[in-house]
Every structure is written in C-alpha cells, then in structure tokens.
Description:
Largest sheet: 8 strands, mixed
Bound molecules: 6-O-phosphono-alpha-D-fructofuranose
Number of helices: 8
Strand order of the largest sheet: 4-3-5-6-7-8-9-10
Shape: globular
CATH superfamily of the largest domain: Fructose-1,6-Bisphosphatase, subunit A, domain 1
Number of strands: 15
Structural class: alpha+beta
Number of domains: 2
Radius of gyration: 20 Å
Amino acid sequence: MNRPRKVTTLGQFIIERQRDFPFAKGELSRLLRDIGIAAKIVNREVNKAGLVDILGSTGRENIQGEDVKKLDIFANEQFIAALTSGGECCVIASEENEEIIPIETEISKNAKYVVMIDPLDGSSNIDVNVSIGTIFSIYRRKSLGGPGTLEDCLQAGTEQVAAGYVVYGSSTMLVYTTGRGVNGFTLDPSIGEFCLSHPEMRVPETGVIYSINEGNYIKFPEGIKKYIKYCQEDDKATSRPYSSRYIGSMVADFHRNLIKGGVFIYPQTQKSPNGKLRLCYECNPLAFIVEQAGGKASHGTGRILEITPTDLHQRTPIIIGSVKMVEQVEDFLRQYPGN
Ligand code: P6P
C-alpha cells in the first residue's frame, strides 16, 4: 500500500525548527507565519489579476520614479496590515513608502523585530503574466522600546535574523532562511497551505546560465563587457557558450539560478552609478539566502551583506549566485577595471 506522503506545512516546519533557538519564545515564528498569510492573500489577487480591476497603473509614481501598479499597492497594504496586526514587528520599511512605518499599536509595544520588504518586485511584468515576487528581510530591533526607528532599519545585512522571498510563478513558492539553511515551500491551493517541497536548498557551485540585461551593454563597466563575451565564447571544456536567461523579475531570475546554478548581474552603469537594485529589501535578503545555500553575493569588490546602509532606498551593484561564477565576474572586474 502506498503510504501517504508526509506533508509538512510552513507553520509546522516553523514550530519544529523553533527548537533550534532555545531562547526563542515564538515571536519570530509568529512573524514568519504572518508573512506567509499575507503572501497567500497576495497570491490570490496575483492569480486573478487579469479578471479584476487590479491590473494596470495607478497613474502615480513611487519614490523611485517608477510607475505604481494597482497590485503593488494592494500587496503593500496586505503585508503592512499582517505585520501590524501580528504584534511582532516594531517598524516596517517598504519599497513603496518613502519613510519608515513605525508600528504604534498596543499589541506591538514590546515587538522585537524589524521588517524590510519589497511587497511586489517586478511589477512591470504583472500585466503580461510573467512571474513576480515579494522579498523580505528581518532584523532584531536595536532601539529599546516603543515604535521602531530609522536606525533599526539601517543595519548591515550581516545582522539579518531571517530573510525570504515569495515567487508567484507557475506555482507559488516561499523560500526563507533563519541562518540555518534554506528551505522552500510550495503553495498547495487545495489546502491553502505552503508545504515543504525543497528542503535544505543548495545552489550548485557553478552553472551555465548568466542573467543580465544586455540591452545596457554599452553602458556596462569594461569587466562586465569582457565577462559577457567570455560567456558567449565556444569552449566545450568549460560548457560555453552559456545560456542567457533574463526574466526582468529579480526574484524569478534568482530562484531559477538558486535551483539550477547560474549568476545574476545588475551592475552599475553610467546612468545608474550605484546600479538599480535596492540594498535593504532586495539585495540583502537574497544575499543572506544565497550565502546560506552555499552561494555568493558581491557588489563587485566585496560582500553585499557587509555594506552598512545610510539610506532606506539606496542601491547597489549586485553579482549573485553560484560561488565560482560570482568569483569569476569579480576576477574580470579586477582584470579589466574602469567603465
Ligand atoms: P531592467 C524589476 O523592476 C526590478 O526591480 C527587478 O526585479 C529586475 O531584476 C530589474 O528591476 C529589471 O530591471 O532595467 O533590466 O528592466
């Protein structure tokens, strides 16, 4: 008789792993569950975006000067509501909000945690049915009590206690780490639960996929141009030419490389001297995850996680994925300096 496959839900997994933290009283567990609940609500709207009046633009621009999509706003509101009502978060910083969102409710007055979030990354892909994602990072507060502060939000990535992302794709997955490995959960719509599907994820130490917007080639630093040409050379011994894969949604590109191996690069260009992607709620969480999975995340000359932020929305160049591929890009940048 086929024994039924053991299903471990996200909630069960979080509780089981809570034992890894002897002094934990369950606050981080509840915080992660709050995020999981909001992700399920966002997923429901993402999956029917073509059917309800949630497609398209709001006609507004965010602080990045980017067109704000209705689903961006919906997702932001859902995560803020879940984190505010959950009582474990003292302050939120969101890609959609210029300033921090201090949580001042009675239930949160002793909250220990800080959440940095990009509620819906890749939103330009919403209207064309391409995968999008949520990215989050969790820190312990530094301030002593009451609503959290800007200083609580401007911590180096090495201080993260947890990080994760949700990819709304052919299936919806939540992948996260608390510093003891990386685990992936796939949403089973029939029971409305994220179920463990990718235990102990490890990124292959090398790969044959490079992911970069080659439309910006002319503006790239010399070392990046040389690396792109290296990827395109015909050399069977090193499995080249590599495959170029670029979805235009960082979470989707990152997730594919995490599973298959590869490198994602968003370098600085003359137009964007610090690159495009944001340090606090895009690069740091994915850097924590990739390092926990045995990969690497660099800004070109050092670890992403060691950057001390000075602004909530500051950007950084990023080279992230299989450790040997990231190191090779760093080598090309050293060998061919200059823009
Ligand atoms: P470009 C989406 O807007 C995003 O922030 C990332 O998800 C994605 O990797 C990048 O920007 C795409 O930027 O300039 O290549 O369109």
